[in-house]
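From the shared-data thread, chain only:
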Amino acid sequence: MLVLFETPAGFALFKVLDEGKLSKVEDLWKDFASSDKARKVVELKAFNKFENTSDALSAATLLIDSKPSKGLRKFLQKHCDGETLAVADSKLGNAIKEKLKIDCRHDSAVMELMRGLRSQLTELMSGLAEHDLGPMSLGLSHSLSRYKLKFSPEKVDTMIIQAIGLLDDLDKELNTYAMRVREWYGWHFPELTKIVADNIHYAKAVKMMGNRVNAVNLDFSEILPEEVEAELKEAAVISMGTEVNDLDLLNIRELCDQVLALSEYRAQLYDYLKSRMNTIAPNLTALVGELVGARLIAHGGSLMNLAKQPGSTIQILGAEKALFRALKTKHATPKYGLIYHASLIGQAAPKHKGKISRSLAAKTALAIRYDALADGDDNSMGLESRIKLETRLRVLEGKELGRSAGSAKGKPKIEAYEKDRKGAGALITPAKTYNPASDLVLGKSTEETPKKSEVASKKRKHEEAEPTKEATEADGEQEKEKSKKKKKKSKDSEESPAADADGGEKKKKKKNKESEEAPLADADGEKKKKKKKSDAQDVPMETDESSKKEKKKKKKHADE
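Structure, as tokens:
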């Protein structure tokens, strides 16, 4: 049996001297504990060396896909006639068996044998030293990794980082130069600053005009609209600016040339940046635009570094200072960084910017990974993600989307609310019914009034009986003593809580009224007759002055 072993230098075929040891897989490692023991198990039969690095790379890439290279097929056909071949990859063994008709073996014993060969490789192969094998392995691994990532000079994102940095610098310099032109020429023609707002148009007008006196005879139609041109010519005639000499105007015109040259170079650089972004990160460009995408790549360091970042990091990339300040002061963290300048976030309302920025950051993270690691160069994924985000934005703003938002089949059915039902439906509590016994009936309330009137009449009869006893007494001295006692009692009653007395009197009055208003029985009529008789007897008997005074006091007390 032969063993196929791959090395960075080439393919090696080892002859198994004692196949019986392969049956004892657990003890096979002991036979490779030293080089002498290993030579007793296997020996090198043939070696196929790679001619160069590209040959090694092509053979290695084919082996990854479980395909034998052309050189390997020739090598096996030459040395494997009628032999069983042990391989480390079962798929590779199947491919060799189909194409070369060579029996292949792959099991745990073969893997243990491969492990032993790897440990004693330099001892079993005389022409391969250990210090040579290390650099060869490193070079081949680098080449293989570069091939896996589809490395191409067209995908170098360093150019984007430099271009966006230069574009930002040009914007600053261009703004500084333009403001200097306005300030310098403003001494000669100050009205022109308000008439022409654009910096480039201002520089072109100054370069063409020179002295403001020449403005009347010049044609500014290629630079300015007709209304602005007419206003400029009128202002040039009545301008309050100072006079300048030709040397000053020459320097101002040279500065205008610098402004125009910088603006032209900036437009050229922007076109270059746009083309590079569409080549290197087409999906990222479709989502957030060229400038925002380039700034994200520059801030991340490279497209590959940016692909390693999660969506939450991409969302706040560029707002690190605000993030750490918020964490330190325990305030709300920022919702967006560089991604804020994307057109999708600009279209959203202020209350929806946070949600859209989070969704856009998640889609941007996917687009960056697709651009960095995928094989395709189209921007279909980015365009699809942008359409989804625009749809989500319209949903948040409450706009109608038609059928894309969902069909009528999925709409929930509206059912009547029943507070006594729950779930599928048994009643939790029995339904409440009408109870006629709880109604208030007027007849029952009137039946209680005669009882109250009887009690009130008894009390009144007892009170009216007292003055008759006093009238029967003949002696005036005894009447005076009783009157004094009654005065003391009245004083004591006045000193008691007024609330109790008033309450008692009110109750008595209510009882009297109820007795008068209620339909009384025959017994009530007899009581009224007795009351009248007692009143008639009291009038002739009260002859004394003391009895009159007491009666007046009682009436006053009752009125109170």
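The chain has a mean pLDDT of 77.
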